[in-house]
Amino acid sequence: MKIFKLKEELISYLESQNSNKTRSFVPTMGALHGGHLSLIETAKQNNDLIICSIFVNPTQFNNSTDLEKYPRTIKQDLHALSKIDCDIVYLPEVSDLYNKNEKLKFYDFNGLDKFMEGEGRQGHFDGVATVVEKLLRIVKPKKAYFGQKDLQQLQIIKHITIQLGLDVDIIGVPTKREESGLAMSSRNKRLSESDQEKATLIYKTLQFISKNKLNYTIKELKQICIGKFEYHPELDLEYLEIVSIENLHPIENYKEEGNNAACIAATISSVRLIDNIIF
Ligand code: PAF
Predict the structure, then answer these.
(1) Residues in contact with 155: Cβ distance below 8 Å, sequence separation at least 6, in sequence order
(2) Cα–Cα dist 79/202, whole Å
(3) Counting CB atoms within 10 angstroms of each CB, which of 51, 82, 133, 167 has the fewest?
């Protein structure tokens, strides 16, 4: 496994490689878990050249404590990547991706950022789009893989790559879950076992929504589910929305099967978790 810290070195190495192999890219912020590894496993199915980046991107954090507390486990990450035969890791410092006084770039997400994560985390998606655009322009992959757990991020990245005319397929990979149903996330590392157990209410609620689609209206389902969280005050519910996958706006009537998503953000012991289900 080759490791590069400088984009120039990565670019010249990639240029020297056999161009018959499709480049597949998995950008991450490290603290790798089964969810990340499943992105790489999916990418590997086609015998592509797999490039993974590990970079905790400061511009997407609107809370400096969250940035500081973001788990950094480089040694274990590199070990896990070499074990699953990742070909190349790009491990830049902030200065390799951002100029000293670089101004933040603002994107037009065509309303995809209007609700949910976009409401509570001002500037978050501009930061994500900025770093993803930079990384895609460096790596120039044919395919790039992102988890469906961050559904809004996934849809926004699909949108901007089309808008920017980048020649890349953005592929969403289903969420990997613990046996309990809890969505795998780097943030789970900050939760005690008991909090992880309590946090399973998030996925249980999402399943309840998708199973009861025919029994209740959207308004009723939302009321019932918000009520479930009121019985568990240790989980602070930030939002529970049922949206159309197409524009990520809350809906009053269901769309066709597979075009609805229920999305939740909740905080437990200062750890913010998000999850969704598509139905
Ligand atoms: O999902 C993530 O880990 C990050 O938002 C990403 C896409 C790597 C950009 O920093």
Answers:
(1) 112, 245, 248
(2) 31
(3) 167
> What pLDDT sits at residue 63?
85
Residues linked to residue 27 through DSSP beta bridges, in sequence order: 53
Ligand 1, atom 1, lies closest to the CA of 28
Please give the sequence-ordered ranges of beta strands (E in DSSP) within the chain, or none if there are none: 2-4, 23-28, 49-54, 88-90, 143-147, 169-173, 236-244, 260-268, 271-278
CATH class of this structure's domain 186-278? alpha beta
pLDDT at 48 over 90: no
Pocket of ligand 1 (CB under 6 A): 27-29, 57, 60, 128, 131-132, 150, 153
d(CA 202, CA 183) in angstroms, rounded, equals: 9
Domain extent listing, the chain: 2-173, 186-278
State the Rg of the chain over Cα.
19
Question: How many residues would you count in the chain?
Answer: 279
- How far, in Å, is the centroid of ligand 1 from the Cα of 28? 5
pLDDT digits (tens, 9 = 90+) for 240-254: 999 999 999 999 999
Return the active site residues: 36
Under CATH, domain 2-173 is a member of which superfamily? HUPs (3.40.50.620)
Q: Which atom of ligand 1 is nearest to the CA of 57?
A: 10
CA of 29 to the centre of ligand 1 (A): 6
Distance 279 CA to ligand 1 centre (A): 24
Contact criterion met (CB below 8 Å) for 124 and 157 = no
Mean pLDDT in residue range 211-235: 97
